[in-house]
């Protein structure tokens, strides 16, 4: 392992992060399980990319079969991207009927921002203040984890993300008003500076912000302010999408709003680098007229085959239903743990996307949360932390997660809590 | 076919381009061959992505095997990215020993620009005026095919690319001086405007500019001017790289200069979406300190396996040698065609990257070139056009191209010329 870490630091740079104090040297995956090079087995409660399970045989078969038959770019005509596009867009409101396929959620968001700029003629963008939308130069401007070199550009404005534990506490009506007021102010400032507003971009689950519990309609007033000023709404569904939240295929459906542009990524190909932007036909047309865009790998036959297999497994194995059922079961187990563990301030989530927020002595328990992540890894359960104070255990397993897996998770969490508290 | 084109226009937008007046509806690929849905066979003389041949069985096997075993991100430790990184960097000068893996050449160039900015503290970038470096917002600023919405940003400056057929004609010494003077002026302007110079980025084969014939050392004075001003040199090896040019693995070796940052893309995974930046350890370290960069799919085990298989096939099957041998054979055949076809003004290239430039009545024969592309497609040979005036037939086949394939290409080109002239 030391040798691997040394090679890694030289080849991949000294700041290439690893998860856990003792990184996991992975060798094999299957379903919800990972094995390390020593043969040790881990319950994966965190990786959303293998959405239909690590090494899902139907996805592997689809990739292998198509890779052996044909893989080339979309300047040739091929049916698979069309079949997939029709299947995918059937899961959206009728007017979201067009798509542009790319290789990563970062590329998808990079395109989405330009679509909004082309469509509105404005450049201003509003995002939330504790988020992540990807790694290109343009979308890095929206990331709050590190200020970009040269600072934030003046056309980008951040508004405070909703936060259940903030001074406004659990009063969601006041939270929604505060959020809308912040958006209204940002719109006014972008208009005053001459940028105007092209889009409000947000994850409709606020996944990186610690996914506060929000009622349907929470965003309505903020969205209205953006629309009234001529801006569009971009829903970054990279994390909540494809049925993970159990109640719906998409996070924006759960919150009850209709985005103009939706971006998709990580789980779309179960690990194969494929991502997409789904939008209205008029927006895609406008973008294509304003920019000359082509993506060599985006939507190639193998990428389309991988995405189609993921789509079909979600449908055939009713993984949205599984996320709803096992998610609720898991939440109940975690609330039982909470009932005798004071350090758990909140248990929340939807479907197979859950958080366990830790506070101690009236403050976010950030260090304790980091210890929990490592203690659970040592006990064979993989998860990580999230949120403004990094004090929430983030649970986001492959959507084939079972009740038995949930039992193991809750048991190990309780054991680890007994060690760290 | 009509139905497929209609579905395509609705789903993928009306301006999603296709090659050829009658698009090819592709079904299957193998080696240098593509088949359409009617079973018609085409000799592929254009697609550089399937570098080791369409559906190369070793690459397919590597992808299928690894996809069935494990595919997850690089915050876990895995050996394959390290094995590949060591193999790949062995093909570069000693100080280019570190790499960052991404999903596309666009992502690679987007990162490379930020590496140069982090390393130099400057923002100014110089590119050539008839090029393409990818599709993200940032690198779109370097593309000359279409002015970005909102115009070019002031930190980006374009210099005229070398052009054998320009007024300076074949006098390469004067061309090199003119190119260097343009770069020196661009540096001076970026310094005067306060941006300073972070990098000169170029394709060391000037692939999109029509790949003018350039001698070793051609760029030395221009590169010296950039370095003297504190800037770095980025070689975009997406097109010439991985041995296509026959004489060397990389275009910059052929031109005899040492870049600070190299970007790789299309052929790297034979169609699997994988790309990379290769650079010095100090530059990667500086970038990682300035930015918080992570790429979910970049360098995952399947991407590393695909890239490793491509690397091994190039080595084991001596495809660099094949590119040199068959490339020279093809050039000679094309020059024989030229000897009795006045419309061919120039035949040039290196390895399996060749151009046939068409002029008529003292002017670039742009329309005739477009007719040639379609006539050859009708005769079962796929290629395309390139260059400032789109009057050069671009030949860039999979590197398993054989002498027999070259015979067919030359025959069909001669037939098509007899039709269009």
From TrEMBL, chains A, B:
One of its GO terms (molecular function) is transaminase activity. Keywords: Aminotransferase, Pyridoxal phosphate, Transferase. It comes from the Bacteria. InterPro entries: Aminotrans_3, Aminotrans_3_PPA_site, PyrdxlP-dep_Trfase, PyrdxlP-dep_Trfase_major, PyrdxlP-dep_Trfase_small. The keyword Amino-acid biosynthesis does not apply. Pfam families: Aminotran_3. Belongs to the class-III pyridoxal-phosphate-dependent aminotransferase family. This is 4-aminobutyrate aminotransferase-like enzyme.
